[in-house]
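Repro:
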Amino acid sequence: MTEDAPELRASDADRERVAEILRDALAEGRLDMAEFEERLEATYQARTYGELTPITRDLPAAGSPTVSLTKPPVDDGSWAGRFVGGEGTSTWAVAVMSGFQRKGRWTVPRRFNCLAFMGGGEIDLREANFADREVEINCVAVMGGVSVIVPPGVEVVMRGIGIMGGFDHYEEETLPDPGAPRVIVTGLAFWGGVEVEHKVTKAERRRLKEERRQARHELHEARHEWRQERREQRENRRENRHDRRHGNY
């Protein structure tokens, strides 16, 4: 439950789930427009589970009245379907005053070795399959750089050394997904750098952007309907006052 770790950071998907509960509550008449706008604004400004939980505490919702830290079981088409076994489609890469890339739908071996000497490399795991649930990426960067990109939910363990260089991990602020792969990054950065960061794919960014655009559109429509209803109510009150003045009951 969220009360167990309220300080953990919430994701965009968590905020969208809360926003959906609020939209349902508005449609069912559980919230008026002012309450809906106030809570929706608080939802998109929330940074932690502790800030999100109170927003829907007094609202019913199918399956989960509040945000939960327990992620749903992995479907066969998700992480489980990306563990394919085998030896991997590529096991090493070298860039000497040049560059290399491994991205798209490739299979990460149990151990991948790479060297960047006065060059650069990119290892993108966002759409990759995995030979095993735990894989190791060994990076050596000498006056060069290697960037490792992993999707959200993947556990990353850093075991590299930086000598007059950097071995950096831009850590994710949410819990790893159940059943997700474990990526161990080892190696050496000498006058160079190795960095690991979590990023969604471009398709996922477009989907989240479209969801936010749709939410803004729905909010605009809801505000328009609410203003129209208020105008009709004011008009009805004026007509009632007019009828009372002229004795028309």
